[in-house]
Prior knowledge:
The protein has helices spanning 2-37, 47-53, 66-71, 117-128, 185-193, 195-199, 203-206, 209-237, 257-282, 296-305, 319-326, 370-381, 438-451, 456-459, 464-502; strands at 81-87, 90-97, 100-105, 136-141, 159-163, 169-173, 179-183, 244-246, 249-251, 334-340, 343-351, 354-359, 386-392, 410-415, 422-426, 431-436. The model has no long low-confidence stretch (mean pLDDT 90). By secondary structure, the protein is an alpha+beta fold. The longest helix has 39 residues, at 464-502. Helix 1 packs across helix 15. It has a six-stranded antiparallel sheet with strand order 3-2-1-10-11-12. The protein has a four-stranded antiparallel sheet with strand order 4-5-6-7. It is globular and about 90 Å long.
Amino acid sequence: MRQTGVQLRKFAIFVHRWLGFAFCLLFALWFVSGIVMMYSDYPGVSPKDRLSKAQALAPEAIHVSPEAAYAALQWSTPPDQVSLAMLDGSAVYRFRSGRSQALVYADSGEVFRLLPQAGAARIAAAWSGEPMDRARFEGAILEPDQWTLGVQLASLKPLLKYVWPDGQEVYVSAVTGEVVQHTTRGSRIAAYFGAIPHWLYFTPLRKNGRLWSKVVIWSSGIGTVASLLGLIVGISLYSPSKRFRYIGKPTSLPYRGQKRWHLILGLIFGLVTCTWVFSGLLSMDPFEGLSDNNDAPFRVSRVLRGGRLRLASFAGKSPGEALRQVAPEIKAKELELTVFGGESYYLARESPNVSRIVPVRGDSIEQFDPARILKLVAKASQPAAFAETRVVTEYEAYYLDRHQQHPLPALFVRLNDSSGSMFYIDPKTARLVEAYGSRSRWNRWLYHGLHSWDLPWLYRNRPAWDIFVLVLLLGGTSLCVTSVILAFQLLRRKFSSEQEQFS
């Protein structure tokens, strides 16, 4: 039995050594880039960015009703989403139906075809805050480049790219007139050291989505096995009775030099390394077993909406009237036509956190009635009943956002169904923000909990989170550095022995 255990350990050491040799540089890259990503993410345009840069809507610029504007498109199906915003000084309706989207000018009813280069230059200059005459036009982007890999180009291309001497790069969709990407010299440098190596977002690889997904999944999976084997080997080698000797003294650990440091760091940070790589694997959703298979979130969303968007129902109050109604309270930059409980409303936004609701019949309100929201959720959840309801006023274990973009307050609902379904609903929009079942709660802790260590008490007591995560990542980095050194030493020995054979 003892001999069998020794043979198994030798085999585990052999596998761990050669997997470590193959993946040590990638592991080191993941840990170092993870430190960068604590403070800088991949460049992108968030809803907050979009609204902060947008022009305020002018009620006098809207002369065409939503119904008449949609009729100009001659689409056969009703729209799923309708909103109003300014585009290069003109108010436009934005219609979406399935994957199709189109724009119609709200002053003339003319269908928007394609943004001219001069208009794109003005939009890009307004976004950058730099003079238009200092911009350099870099052409129409038809294929993804390094900074548009995450953009769904199929319905947005061509993208017109403008560059300024201060390092700003702005991409404007000729189809929608929206800025779809904005980078600065600083955000690009941070991405090269952070998000790009961490996500393996190298352009030739990421452009092939299926290949990229397989590379990330297999790399993370093999890395998990390698780190788990190393942890097992390290524990099996540790001797509480100090049967080894080091510098003439009894010690619990064998080896000298880098092997000794690798073993020490592995015993301290090996578990963190293993769980961190495994949780990174979960970011790719490789296991169906961690996804909920109930339709409760869909049913709740459908009942909250209460029916399709009917443009004729907005005839009782024009968009211009809705904007004038909220003008004393907010400077609306976007006006969305929405439905709640089967009734039509305008949702006016100045920013993601500053908005007003305008019923087609009635005065503006700050949020929908929570009691009515709960009544609709109860209807959608039958035969299950409420196990708990409350108002969430600060982030908690299942409702966290390091960038603080999740709305507060939110309504929390937990059902007594077999999955223990949980919902977080924004009362300002009556929309589902987060939903969890029994499986997705496990996924929350196995992925976000182990990868970002996003524990509420750590977030609320920063820099406690920063210190804790930095210690773990620096420990993992140190472990990977010893792996790189050992791999280099192994490679040098192999190369030297081959040289001797041929000399």
